[in-house]
Design goal:
about 190 residues, mainly alpha, 6 helices, about 90% helix, about 0% strand, extended
Amino acid sequence: MLKSLSTSLILRGLLALVVGGLALAWPGVTVLALVVMFGVFAFMSAGMQALQASTSRSAGAVVGHLLLGLVDLAAGVLALAWPGVTALVLVLVVASWAIVTGALEITAAFRSGEEAGTRAMFMVGGLVSAAFGVVLFARPGTGAISLALVFGLFNLISGSSMLVRGVELRWTHAGLHTLFSPTKTKAVA
C-alpha cells in the first residue's frame, strides 16, 4: 500500500511540475485553456440537464431541466465564441471572491476569544486577499495573465511537495521492508 501511494504522489508531483512549467511558459495559452475547459464543462452540464429532463416524471421538472440545459448550452457557446470576454468575467469572479474572502477574514480577526497571533494571521490574510481582489478589478487584463502565473507557481510548489513526499514515502517503505523481511537462518548441524 505504501508503495502504491508513493508512486501516486510521485506521478502526481511530476504532472503538476509539467503543468506548472507550461503555465509559466505560456500564460496566455493557460488562460485560453481555462476558458475552453469552462466551455466544455458548460456543454457537459447541458447534456446532464437534458438527461435529467428525460428521466423526470413531472412537466415542471422537465421544463426546468430543459431551461437550465439551454442556459448551460448558451454559456458554453458564448465562452467559446468570445474567449476574451469569458476570461474577463472569470477574472472578475475571482476578484469578487477575493474581496469577499478578505472581508470575512478581517471580520474574523475581531471575533472575541481569538489569540493575538490568530488575529494577526486573519488580518494579514484578509488584507492580502482584499488587495488582490482590488488589483484584479483595477487591471483585469493583466489579472488574467497573473492568475495563469499564480496557477503555474502553485503547481510547481505543490508538485515539488508531492514529489518529495512520494520519494520520502518510498524510502520509508523500503526501510520498513528491509526491517521486517524474514531473514534466512542457517541450520546448525
